[in-house]
Each structure stands twice: as structure tokens, then as C-alpha cells.
Amino acid sequence: MCLGVPGRVIDVDGWTATVDFWGVRKQVLLNIVDEPVAPGDYILNHVGFAIRRIPPESVAETLALYEMLLGDDTADLMTSDVRGEIAGTS
Amino acid sequence: MSNELQFRDPALARGMAATLARQLEAIGRKVAVMHVCGSHEQAIAKFGLRSLFPKQLEVIMGPGCPVCVTDTPEVDEGVVLARDGVRIATFGDMLKVPGTVQSLADAQASGGRIEVVYSPKQAVDLARSTAEEVVLFATGFETTAVATAAVILDDPPPNFSVLSAHKYIPPVMEIVAEMPGSRIEGFLAAGHAATITGWGVFEDFVQRHGVPVVVAGFEPNDILAGLVELVELVRNRTPRVVNMFPRCVTRDGNLPAQEQLWRVFQPTGGRWRGIAHVPNGNLRLRDEFAHLDARKRFTIDLPSLWDYAPPQLARQCICGDIMAGIANPKDCRLFNRECVPENPVGACMVSNEGTCKIWHLYGGVPDLEEASA
Fold first, then answer.
1. Cβ <8 Å between B195 and A52
2. Least CB-CB distance to B6: which of A44, A68, A87?
3. Cβ contact (<8 Å) for A51 and B122?
4. Of A74, B167, B173, B263, which has the most beta carbons under 10 Å away?
């Protein structure tokens, strides 16, 4: 659960952002994010909330772990946690 | 080893493993360090990192699984509410965690209405869709508690309330460091909890206990780099906080999230399952939010549940010793026998972040020498 999952912000409407997670578009809440976010930014989502705006220079490095995990078999604990994090959005 | 192919930079990983070996040789004795994060243990097990660690380095998973440390009476509170007809929304990991008599899954089987959610927001949405009382049975460390705080501050409907079993990590590190005979010489702090609190939160701890803390990320190489730094601090006897995960963690952390966390929650002392009473380790709703506190809204009659003795097997469970770093799953006579994920005896076998479940799935201590012997 601690892993969270990164996604790219498509649109911001008040406290709600539309975020793209590998082609899946979901709503993520911005109530507790550390910095203002704008379309094009990447955020780290945990249980439906953005908890961090990922600095642009760290995006590629951050995505790599998740891309490896999501390419893995679904029975894996880390992969299922990441999928659960995407399911926490609406 | 096939998993090594998945390292983004296997050469770097091998280099760091060699560095660890040299460091431990220079120290010339066994060194035990602790991490407090289920995701760290998952990565260590999944990528077979223990097979890269020198024999003299012991990396122990501490109380880093929020589901596992949810205490039995806290589960009981949820079970009683469900039995009394209240709709419970909770994270899926919580369902099979044993209570004194029943788990939430048992309560569900006997007619209790328990809904699995992935976000506190989904519990609020559920409450908005019905006139019935909905209680969010909220578990998790500060990383998750901030989300519960946010929904509490966002004008939830009047039929929504929270049964908080949220826990706060920094105080339990104090408990582990102060345990008599503690062998732990350093802590690897979890990257994303520190995203919220910032790494500065560990400075007082280091000063008080003289034990270094390194904040690390979740990739195999992040963990190895964190351990190299941590062991170096142990070797040089220079305890301090080092942030090895700057892409996610700053000194001050996420200030808007902290502000909401502490506006809603008050740290209070309470038991962590199998560990101890942890002063300031439990996050409870402040009086200002009493109307949203399920413990105040409902009469939760726990003694009515306690007419039964706990099952015999549960008494043999050593989850507490495992989370305190005194034992590992292989020391437990139930592990992989009576206690398996499909039918867990202890909480550590329930959660994806529990040491026992992780070791069960990945085959226990991934020790190449042992495997090839």
C-alpha cells in the first residue's frame, strides 16, 4: 500500500484532477498534494489522493519501477498493490 | 538468478552488494538493521535481495504493516458494529485479520455488511448513496491517514463516520529502539511515509537513540543504496538522518497534508498488535470531530463479544516477535502449516505487507547458498 502509483495530469477542475495511468483515465483528489499541479505534471496517487507532485526531472526514474511491476504477473504482491492504488481513484 | 535481469542496472546492484560485503568485513561482526515498510519487504523478497546481502548483515522487517499491527480489540470494534447492522467500509486487507472471536470476513459471512474500498473517498461516496449509517474502518500509517483527514475536512454526509485504527510510525521506532536487548543498529525509513512527514521528523530520534536513519525508495537499487549508506553510518559511528530518496522526500515533507492530518487527528497511546503499548502511536479523531467519530456515535459493546476464549492456535502465533525483529517467520511452528494466506492464524499472514505472507509467497528466506546446498 505504501507504493502509491504515479500518473500524468490531464486536466484540473478545482480539487479534482483527471489523471492518466497508462491509458486509464481516473479522477484523483488534490486536497492534500504538496504543490499546485497543472496539466502535464506527474503526481503520486495514494488511495485516491495525490500526495506528491513529482519533480519533472524525477518522472522517468519514478515511472521505471512501476512499468516493470505492471509488466509482471498479476499474482505478484507489489503489482496487486499498484493495481489497488489505481482502483482507489474514481 | 532470473530476477536479477529485472534490475534496471544489475552491474550497479552487484557493485553495491560488493560494497556491503566490504563494509561488513571492516566492521567484523554481525550487524542488524530494520526497515519499517511492507513495500520494502516485498521488494527485498521479490528481487531476492537477501541473497545479495552479506551473511553478517541482517535486514529485519519491523512493524511496517499497518494491517498487521491493527490490534485485536480494534478489529472487534468493527465486528461489533457490523453485527449491529452498521455498514462498514474498509480496505480489503482488513477482512481476514483475526479479531478476538471473528474477523470482518466472518462477520460478513454471518450477515454483516462490509464493503471493500480502495480509498476513504469511496466510503464517503457509499454514504452519499444511502440513508444508512456508513462507518469507514480506517487503517494505515500517516500516508493513508492524510486521506482520511481530507475526507473528514471535506464536509462528509451526516450518515458517515470513521472508526480510526490509523497508526503513526515515528513513535513505534522509539519503542523498537528502546526494547531491552535490541540489536537494531540502524533504520531504513519508508520513502512514502516520509513523503508526508519529511525526513526531518527523524532527527530527534537519531539524537535520542544514537541510531542512524536512512530514507530509501522501493527499487532494488534504491534499497541497496540505502543499506550501503546505513551500514556506512553504523561503521563510522556517525548517527544521522540521510535522505536517499530525494525524488520523493524533502526535509519538511508535505506541509498541506501534515496540516490536515494534525487538524483532524490527535496522537494517543495505544496497543499495536503483538508489539506493545505505543505512546502517541495511534491516531484518534480530535474532539472537534466527535460527531464523525464512530466510537462516540455508537455504543460499541465489546465485552459482549468476549465471552469466548480466543482460538488455541492464535496463542501460538508469534507475529509480535516477528514485527519486533526478535524472530522470523521460520521460527513460528504455524508458518506454512496451520497458518497460510487462505486460512491465516496471525495478522502477518493476512496482509500483502505482512512478513509471513511475503515470505510464504516468495518461499521464505531467499538464500541462494541454502537453496543450492
1. yes
2. A68
3. no
4. B167
Q: What's the complex ipTM?
A: 0.91
Q: Does A28 touch chain B (CB under 8 A)?
A: no
**Domains along the sequence of chain A with CATH:** 5-87 (2.30.30.140)
Taken in order of first residue, the domains within chain B and their CATH numbers are 1-316 (3.40.50.11740), 317-363 (no CATH)
Residues 45-64 of A with CB under 8 A from B: 46-49, 51-52, 54-55, 58, 61-62, 64
DSSP B318: -
Q: What is the pLDDT along chain B (373 residues), one digit of tens a residue?
A: 444 445 678 889 999 999 999 999 999 999 999 999 888 999 999 888 999 999 999 999 999 899 999 999 999 999 999 999 999 999 998 999 999 889 999 999 999 999 999 999 999 999 999 999 999 999 999 999 999 999 999 999 999 999 999 999 999 999 989 888 788 999 999 888 899 999 999 999 999 999 999 999 998 999 999 999 999 999 999 999 999 998 889 999 999 999 999 999 999 999 998 888 999 999 999 999 999 999 999 999 888 777 665 666 777 889 888 888 888 999 999 999 989 998 888 889 988 889 999 999 887 665 545 544 3
The B residues from 26 to 65 touching A (CB cutoff 8 Å) are: 37-39, 42-43, 46
CB contacts of A67 in chain B (<8 Å) are none
**Grid cell at residue B65:** 504493516
Query: Contact B146/A49, CB-based, under 8 Å?
Result: yes
**DSSP-derived pairing of the beta strands B213-216 and B241-243:** parallel
